[in-house]
Amino acid sequence: MPLFLTNITLFLYFLISLFLLLLSVVSIICKSKKLDFIVFLIIGIMMVCFYGLRFPGNSDTRMYLQGFDSLSSLDSFMWSSGFYVLMKSIKIINNSHDAYIFLSSLYFVLAFMLVGILYCKDRYYKSLFLLTCFYSWSVLDLAVNTYRQGIAIPFIILGVYFLNSKKNILAVVAISIALTIHWGSSVIVALYFIAIYLSKHLRLLKIVTFFTLMLFTLSFFINFEFAGSLSKSSLISSLQVLFVGVDLTSKIDAYLGGGVVGARFYDMPSLQRLYFSGEIYIAILIFSFFFLTRKAKDPIITSGNFVMIYSFFTIVAFYGVVLISMTWFIRNFYWAVPITPVLYVLILQYYEKENVKKHHFLLLLFVIFQIAFSIETFWRAPLIDLVYPY
């Protein structure tokens, strides 16, 4: 049962989000950039309130609050330098727990709003982009639980935007911020350069697309223990010589092959597997079908913008699929999920230019899907029950 049926606060947020979604659709149909931007700002305020006025009921937030309380010097800080600067900036303003939760949520939402402003530049899809982020239960987890990864992701996406726009200095700044907040960003940045190569070789990109979709589909039925095998491979042992004084083998084995009850894909029953991976799997299905059915001379293919972002999404999704057997596998997919609203918007923009009737139909279908899927996932998420217990 959706949690907003038993919680008046959640029900109010649900109604507000529906009203804002309606206004977002109106702004697209009327092609009103002004209305879209106003709705975009209101959605941002709603998201800040939703994330920032929550109860600190989940484990990661409580851990961050302990670090916030004991914050002193960078040398004694348990996380990275970028996250230290973030916490320090909040503590200078106000050192209360409420201030940390609210201001960290403000930073998070502002970062995603900047992504929407740049990727939907001169268009009227900003509000739809941001509301799609809000309805994502993966983004919810990034905002209220796995926050370090959550605040790093928009800076990676911004870095990709700046690199594609040949704004290399801004790209370095954005990517550097991501790297100083979460170490996992380094892997995703490396994958971006693979994505550049794939975007220039469409036949190879189609092969990777098909292989990713096939492997992901089969993973629901066949146990692929790639992560466990990788953690015990000779490659990891050979890398140990580069990390003197660090037990790299045990660290990687714990990361890739370590067991936490209930946190591994293959420990879950079928429906639970679908719940945790459905959001990214559906996105892969839709984007793969769209890409594979486009002709080589199609404007959306020749322009390069869609192909580059799609290529990046696909290689990150492939990375998540290969490591699907690892503990907390879903967090690998989190790197890809926030890219999906960008691709959804690009596809809708494409159909708006090609076929107005089809665009209106797909827009309506997308809105219905967002509402229905969020009711089945976002509004039922155990995380919401923890942060809005009453």
TrEMBL record:
<feature type="transmembrane region" description="Helical">
    <location>
        <begin position="37"/>
        <end position="55"/>
    </location>
</feature>
<feature type="transmembrane region" description="Helical">
    <location>
        <begin position="12"/>
        <end position="30"/>
    </location>
</feature>
<feature type="transmembrane region" description="Helical">
    <location>
        <begin position="363"/>
        <end position="381"/>
    </location>
</feature>
<keyword id="KW-0812">Transmembrane</keyword>
<keyword id="KW-0472">Membrane</keyword>
<protein>
    <recommendedName>
        <fullName>EpsG family protein</fullName>
    </recommendedName>
</protein>
<keyword id="KW-1133">Transmembrane helix</keyword>
<feature type="transmembrane region" description="Helical">
    <location>
        <begin position="147"/>
        <end position="163"/>
    </location>
</feature>
<dbReference type="Pfam" id="PF14897">
    <property type="entry name" value="EpsG"/>
</dbReference>
<feature type="transmembrane region" description="Helical">
    <location>
        <begin position="274"/>
        <end position="293"/>
    </location>
</feature>
<dbReference type="InterPro" id="IPR049458">
    <property type="entry name" value="EpsG-like"/>
</dbReference>
<feature type="transmembrane region" description="Helical">
    <location>
        <begin position="305"/>
        <end position="327"/>
    </location>
</feature>
<feature type="transmembrane region" description="Helical">
    <location>
        <begin position="333"/>
        <end position="351"/>
    </location>
</feature>
<feature type="transmembrane region" description="Helical">
    <location>
        <begin position="204"/>
        <end position="224"/>
    </location>
</feature>
<feature type="transmembrane region" description="Helical">
    <location>
        <begin position="99"/>
        <end position="118"/>
    </location>
</feature>
<feature type="transmembrane region" description="Helical">
    <location>
        <begin position="169"/>
        <end position="197"/>
    </location>
</feature>
